[in-house]
Amino acid sequence: AKSGGKGRHARYDATLDERAATDAQMGADLRLALDRGEFHLLFQPVVQLPDGVPAGAEALVRWTHPSQGMVPPDVFIAAAERTGLIVPLGSWILREACRQASLWLRRDGASQPWRVGVNISARQLREPGFASQVAEALRESGLTADRLTVEVTETAVFENGPAVEALTAISHLGVSVALDDFGTGHSSLGLLRTTPVDILKVDKSFIDGIPGREEESIIATAMLQIAEGLHLGTVAEGVETRAQVERLHQLGYRLAQGYYFDKPLPATEMGAKLAAAANH
Ligand code: C2E
Ligand code: CA
Ligand code: CA
Ligand code: CA
């Protein structure tokens, strides 16, 4: 079981045996939390290398439980998927991220080509009409499609058969598709032949060993070459040190995300960073 930090999430700390009961409880709690407005989004900048100028933002959901405090997404997203609550929650996340991005644009103007990334789970991707839901979120917020990226993992794309149709429909809207945690799934390379993908988000596990281990740099370079050959963008995830920044830049990486630059930020702080970049 996860150690929820000082046992704060003990209620959601279950063995497999206890999981069904916990899920039922969690499902009910998540439903209530959604109705009570206990979720909010933080935004982590995606930045240019090496200068750290923001080029986008990834929306990351947070749940402030009235008695247990901040519950991290690793604790509740999986349960939300198992209980199906991810569908209404994910719909709220998508609309809220579009609404927020649209506010930043209206305030700062559209001079900078940044995008907002929204994580989409396997279950959401398989909802009938998911692409129409994306279109509706854009329409209602007034955000243009070229400002939105959906982030999906390789596993999400392949679970219960490939979700190529949904991703194709989303691509046709003009929304970009990013493969999240790239390199950690089952068919990372096979997927690139069959799925409309615009951006590879190279998983933190491939970035961690840079610059120390030469093998890691070789793999990171190979991923970059594949991306460039296929005209895809790349983002290095989980960058934590200056040495990583220097090496990744030297290898040819142009975009990154990680604590070295910023942790996930409240919407106002994210907006201020985008505004500052626009006024440069
Ligand atoms: P992810 O999509 O791969 O998001 C990146 C995670 O890595 C985030 O954790 C982020 O805070 C963390 N991170 C970023 N830079 C660094 C770094 O330099 N070092 C370290 N150690 N971590 C870093 P977070 O926000 O806790 O989210 C965890 C996962 O939960 C996400 O992984 C994603 O799979 C899921 N998730 C978060 N928000 C959403 C959401 O709105 N919808 C869905 N479906 N899933 C979400
Ligand atoms: Ca992500
Ligand atoms: Ca990721
Ligand atoms: Ca991840």
Q: What's the short story on this structure?
A:
The chain is α/β, with parallel strands linked by helices and 280 residues long.
Write the layout of secondary structure elements.
Elements: H1 16-36, E1 39-48, E2 54-65, E3 69-71, H2 73-83, H3 86-108, E4 115-119, H4 122-125, H5 130-141, E5 148-153, H6 154-158, H7 164-173, E6 176-182, H8 188-194, E7 199-202, H9 204-207, H10 214-229, E8 233-236, H11 242-251, E9 255-256, E10 265-266, H12 267-278
Parallel strand pairs: 2-4, 4-5, 5-6, 6-7, 7-8
Antiparallel strand pairs: 1-2, 1-9, 1-10, 2-3
Helix pairs in contact: 1-2, 3-5, 3-12, 5-7
The structure holds ligand C2E and calcium ion (3 copies).
One calcium ion is lined by residues 58, 119, 151, 180.
Report what the structure shows.
The protein is globular. β6, α8 and β7 form a beta-alpha-beta unit. The N terminus is likely disordered. By secondary structure, it is of the alpha/beta class. The longest helix has 23 residues. It is built from 12 helices and 10 strands. α1 packs across α2. Helix content is 48%, strand content 20%. Strands 1, 2, 3, 4, 5, 6, 7, 8, 9 and 10 form a 10-stranded mixed β-sheet that branches. One calcium ion (CA) binds next to β6.
